[in-house]
Each structure stands twice: as structure tokens, then as C-alpha cells.
Amino acid sequence: YTGHCPPLEVQRNDKLLWLWEQSRALYPSIYMEEVLRNSPQGRCFVRAKLREALRVAELPSTPHSLPVFAYARPFYTYTLKELSQADLVHTIGQAAAAGAHGVVLWGDVEYSRNRSNCQKIRDYLLGALGPYIVNVTLAAQLCSRQLCHGHGRCLRRHPDSDAYLHLDAGTFRIHVVAQGRRAHVVVRGAPARWYTQRMAHDFTCHCYQGWRGERC
């Protein structure tokens, strides 16, 4: 896989401008096939879909780009096999770093078909998925505050880079705390100066409507 959308698909999307003009948001699918597990091709595939969606979001003649919410699954497509840590980064992490407005985790009735499946999802939420979502969410919020005064979201300066919005493992600790049948994720720590400097090196701001400038 080349990591780029075929020119024909780009042309087709351009011809659908009438549709984008009537849209209020875009929802590109970034589902991961198991055959792409832990692969550079999987990372490139998701990156290209996000990049094209963000390009299309700029086409309508509106004063601001359309919001982009990536549709993802916590499991490989058509399976109940959990996304690996690397593929959580390639999907959810990449959507955040590319500048998407959010991620919609999607599933089907198979997730709740029986007690075993429900338990599997719970274990995944408390194991890898939940802490990673909290990690990316807080890192994105921190970047917005530090770089964009809370008036914009961060996105990669260089779209082809492998920079991600992750909390620094050296200064932050993420724990899952169980209280009976309930559990929640606890984060402790503070960003070091070098961490903020690295964010400024790797990311820039996309200002929210009504705000302008390099730092919004």
C-alpha cells in the first residue's frame, strides 16, 4: 500500500462537493482489518483515510472546515480480537494526532451477545483500551491548553510524521482503580518543560471558529 488515496478517488470526492456543502460533519471509517495487524501498511492506510477526510472537510464554502469524527472499532473488523497496543496507536492515536475532532468507537450486537463477550470487552476496557483513550484525551487537552490557549486543537506540523499526542510516561502514571463492580482510570503527574517544547516542535494549532493566529 502506497499510503496515498488513488487520484481517481480524490477526483470522485471533489465531484461530491454538492454533498459536502450540505453536510455538517464527516465520519471516515478507520476500521482495521486483522491482515494489517501491527503493520506499516495499516498505519499508512488509516493515515491516508484521515488525510483525505480532512482535505474534503476544507472543500465546502463555509467559514470553517467541517468537523471530522473517525469511526473506529476496538476490535479487528469482523472479529472479537482486540486491537493490539500498536494498532490502538495507529487508529485512535493517529486520528488525534492528525487533528480529527474525535473518534466514535463502533460495534454491533456481537459485543453483547453473551456474558463471555461482555466480560471480554470489560477486560479490554480496563486493560489496554480505557487507559489509552484517557492517555490520548488528556494529551490532546494538554496540547490545546499549552499551544493553543484552549482555543484550538493540535495537529501534526508534518502530516507524514510519526508524532503522537501521548502523555510522557516518565512524568505521568495511569492506573485503573477498581471499586466493587465499578472502575475508573486515575492519572497522576505533570508535564516537564521539555515535553511542552517537544509538542511545540511536533504540533501546530487548528483554531476553533472565532479564533486566529499561530497560537489562537
Name of the CATH architecture? Alpha-Beta Barrel
- What topology, given as strand order, has the largest sheet? 1-2
Count helical runs.
6
Q: What structural class do helix, strand and pairing data support?
A: alpha+beta
Strand count: 6
State the low-pLDDT regions, or none: none
CATH class: Alpha Beta
Count of individual domains? 1
The CATH topology label is TIM Barrel
The largest β sheet comes out as: 2 strands, parallel
User: Residue-averaged pLDDT, rounded?
Assistant: 93
N-to-C order of helices and strands = HHHEHEHEEEHE
* CATH fourth-tier homologous superfamily: Aldolase class I
Keywords: Disulfide bond, Glycosidase, Hydrolase
GO cellular component, one term: cytoplasmic vesicle
Organism: Crypturellus undulatus
Catalytic activity: Random hydrolysis of (1->4)-linkages between N-acetyl-beta-D-glucosamine and D-glucuronate residues in hyaluronate
Identify the notable features of this structure and list them briefly.
216 residues, alpha+beta, TIM Barrel, 6 helices, globular, Aldolase_TIM, disulfide bond
Describe the structure.
With 216 residues, this protein is α+β, with helices and mostly antiparallel strands. It has a single domain, classed as Alpha-Beta Barrel (TIM Barrel). 42% of the residues lie in helices and 16% in strands. It contains six helices and six strands. It has helices at 7-15, 17-21, 40-57, 85-98, 115-148, 193-202, and strands at residues 69-72, 102-105, 152-156, 172-179, 182-189, 203-207. Strands 1-2 form a two-stranded parallel sheet. Strands 3-6 form a two-stranded antiparallel ribbon. Strand 4 and strand 5 (182-189) form a beta hairpin. Helix 4 packs parallel to helix 5 (115-148). The N and C termini lie far apart (37 Å). The mean pLDDT is 93.
